[in-house]
Amino acid sequence: MTDGDQAPTIRILVVDDDPLQGALICGVCHRLGYQAVFADCYQSAADLISTGTFDCYTLDLSLGDRDGIELLRLIAADSGARRVIVISGCDQRILSATVRMAHAAGIVDAVSLPKPIDLRSLREALTFEGGGRSTAQHRAEKNARLITAEELSQGLAADELYPVFQPKVNLRSGQVVGCEALARWDSPTFGAVGPDVFIPLAEQSGAIKLITLRMLRESMSMARRFLDRDPSFVVAANLSAMLLTDTTILQQIEQMLDETGVPARSLMIEVTESTAMSDVDRAMDVLLRLRIKGVGISMDDFGTGYSSLSALARMPFSELKIDRSFVKDCLVDPDMWKVVAASVAIAHQYKMKAVAEGIEDAETWWALEELGCDIGQGYGISRPLKLDAFESWYQAWNADTPVPVLTRRVHAE
């Protein structure tokens, strides 16, 4: 391996007003082969964050006359951060709330550790799978922020945007019941561009309708391939807030259903709470007419906004999707578990299916099943897949799944 092929050294910023504690954490970092930089106060850390790039931060919540919460906002602006480890002697509810605040601020990978620090737990929290981000990944992320509407339009014309499909399974039987279609963009210039970059750009530039219609058509064509094997198969696709008030989308969806031969019941339209509530009267018009035609309507990211219950009471939803931010930690965070349990109960009160996003392990699956959650999706089941890969995965999963499900039930009994 040449020097150019070697993975970049992982850089850790250790923030703690106790030099002995800082030295302890830095020592663990060095033994793991990382480069650790120590800051003993808020201002030193803020200066380092503004001038340097770090893969991970360990952050004490108590920093003399300042606190670590202020630093979380600065860290959230650093797109290179892979992980934040919050360390504090505060009680567990404060730690849990801080981690949730970090997630809300955009820090995807945030965890907490209590003081006094358990060295084994610290090493586990500091261990990265696959090493640091590659230079190519960093360059792609940086370039993605510079993409223009014209370049997005060129990507569309060149068929660089395409759907991937994440399976949805029945949590009781283990059988695949459908999938969610997600838009992706692989650009020869910018690399893999995330939907968090190109979807807002598409909405601003007016390209969102073209992207949505393309994703809908390809999703329906995909569903058509599976309906002969499973007439109850349902494909879900997202609808932008801009299109939820466009009544012409109704005729276009109906026309595509007719052309592809897909029954309306096999299509689920997902809308977020903020989308549904942005223009209630016009959104109600579109959603009701879709439901009358037999199309399912799913409330996506339930619980992450400010009017979820109001939206549920007013809109004709048939499915409720519990956001992954609640599901991911529900087995270790009692507060998150209460939210998930309440969400399942609310869905059933409204005669809707409860869907859990973000299932990453069997234990979460089993707990959600016992809770009565109907459907699940997440990386523990499968990542989003291109069509051919989904076909192969679907055949293998439905052939193998009943055995472990039955085995688990025997052991449970």
From the alpha carbons, calculate the radius of gyration and give it in angstroms.
23 Å
- Runs with pLDDT <50, length 5+? 1-6, 130-144, 406-413
Biggest sheet, open or closed, and with what strands and sense?
A: 8 strands, mixed, barrel
Shape: globular
CATH topology name of the largest domain, in short, is TIM Barrel
- CATH superfamily (homologous) name of the largest domain: EAL domain
Question: Per DSSP, what share of the residues sits in E-state strands of 2 or more residues?
Answer: 15-25%
- Secondary-structure-based class equals alpha/beta
In the CATH hierarchy, the architecture of the largest domain is Alpha-Beta Barrel
Between the first and last Cα atoms, what is the distance in angstroms?
Answer: 53 Å
Mean pLDDT: 84
